[in-house]
Amino acid sequence: MVKAKNPFQRSFVKGSPFVQAIMDFPSPLKFKAPIVTPKYDGKTDPILHIEQYQAAADIYAVPDEMRCRAFSGTIRGPVQIWYNNIPRGQIVDFNKLVELFIGNFCFGAKPVKRVAHVLSVRQRVGESTRDYITHFNNEKLEVIDYKEKIIITAFMSGLLLEKLYYTLAKYPPRL
Q1: Whether the model pTM is above 0.70
Q2: How far apart, in whole angstroms, are the C-alpha atoms of residue 167 and residue 171?
Q3: Which of 66, 74, 70, 69 lies closest to 48 in space, CA to CA?
Q4: Which residues of 4-34 are buried (b: 16+ CB within 10 A; e: fewer)?
Q5: DSSP characters over the chain
Q6: Cβ of 50: how many Cβ atoms within 10 Å?
Q7: pLDDT tens, 25-83?
Q8: Cα 106 from Cα 100, distance rounded (Å)
Q9: Distance between CA 51 and CA 111 in Å, rounded?
């Protein structure tokens, strides 16, 4: 009788998920591993984690091979378990690691907001102008590919204060 393998049993002698060329790459003297805090646990946007990791690695001009090998130090929990189960030799470069990582954790990715989103931002009844500016700016920061004129128009159309709206219409901000 063949005993079924326990899916929760982990092997600690599995081998590296990297091709031999990555494993053979010599560690630079005084190597500083990129640090990203908090460590990624699968609950947030994986693209943001990769961007933060890349920025940290770029500061020290970390070679691609070392980016691969140091990446496991930026993850934890279920993500570490996923990483430990990548088949041996599957990762040929950092782009492949990113592809696998994002493909596996894309459910945590934050949806991209377009410029039309800010057109729906309105000052709430009882919200001060200062709070509306903060609220609007926070929403604008999440938008990609916008033009300043559209942002100004969206801001103005969301205002409840007619006096401020007409002042901005009469004396538009200079770009």
Answers
A1: no
A2: 6
A3: 74
A4: eeeeeeeeeeeeebbbeebeeeeeeeeeebb
A5: -PPPPPTT---S----SB-HHHHHSPPPTT------SSPB-SSS-HHHHHHHHHHHHHHTT--HHHHHHHGGGGB-THHHHHHHTSPTT-B-SHHHHHHHHHHHHGGGPPPPBPGGGGGG--PPTT--HHHHHHHHHHHHTTB-S--HHHHHHHHHHT---HHHHHHHHHSPPP-
A6: 20
A7: 999 888 888 989 899 999 888 998 999 999 999 998 999 999 999 999 999 999 999 99
A8: 10
A9: 16
Tokens 């907001």 belong to which residue?
113
- Domain range annotation of the chain: 20-26+33-108, 115-170
